[in-house]
């Protein structure tokens, strides 16, 4: 009997009892912050029209967000903030980044869907994030703003935001099978022109270096009616696009260049 109890103790020490993931669902009218690792947000309706904060802020690692609506947000709709791992899928984000007036940037530049690193350290880097099969539309900031590493943007419908549809300052980014749409609604124009469909650049953010030029894959996307189909813009660090594939995309009714790449001397393998 004593041997049996001892064996159970040893087994429980080696194979501890699993803890159920924390699940958030229901309605949240003043926003929601998720800090628990492995948490799940599903079947939720989240808004924050009265405040200036994010509707859904995620600081925990490996959080799953699915089957929800986020809307009427003054700042970001969703932000993965310095997280290691994360998934958002089958959800709708709209009317976010509303603190800025139409056709201009007021205070800051929020995104409807944001991935943001705190810094470039292992604990501050936002990485291994998957954004798939979401409907993201109608906001006064970028539809999607990405600042991290190893981010996958797959199968989303992105429509009518200010300046940018899918915009990345990240390295090792996959952007595939997305539908990006500019309907011509003047409420979301910048200098009279719709947003860029898919864009990369390297801005000089605090604690963030040169990433947006490195290892981008942009394949099988459809962009309709936008300023550019695919655009690599300016680099604060004078880095040319490198190790990048842009292929098999359908770019229709583009207002300026369908594919526009700012050239730097270090450009290679494009």
Beta strands, count: 25
Order of helices and strands: HEEEEEEEEEEEEEEEEEEEEEEEEE
Cα radius of gyration in angstroms: 20 Å
**Uncertain runs with pLDDT below 50, 5 residues or more?**
1-15
N-to-C span: 69 Å
Largest sheet descriptor: 16 strands, parallel
Outline: globular
Main traits of this protein?
single chain, 270 residues, mainly beta, 16-stranded parallel beta sheet, 9-stranded parallel beta sheet
Structure description:
By secondary structure, this protein is mainly β. The protein has one helix and 25 strands. The strands form two sheets. It has a 16-stranded parallel beta sheet that branches. The termini are far apart. The relative contact order is 0.09.
Summarize the structure.
With 270 residues, the protein is mainly β.
Which SSEs are present, and which pair or pack?
Elements: H1 2-14, E1 23-28, E2 32-34, E3 40-48, E4 56-58, E5 63-66, E6 69-73, E7 78-81, E8 84-89, E9 92-94, E10 111-116, E11 127-132, E12 135-139, E13 142-147, E14 149-154, E15 157-161, E16 164-168, E17 171-176, E18 179-181, E19 196-202, E20 216-219, E21 222-224, E22 230-235, E23 245-247, E24 250-252, E25 259-261
Parallel strand pairs: 1-3, 2-4, 3-5, 3-6, 4-7, 5-8, 6-9, 7-10, 8-11, 9-12, 10-13, 11-14, 12-15, 13-16, 14-17, 15-18, 16-19, 17-20, 18-21, 19-22, 20-23, 21-24, 22-25
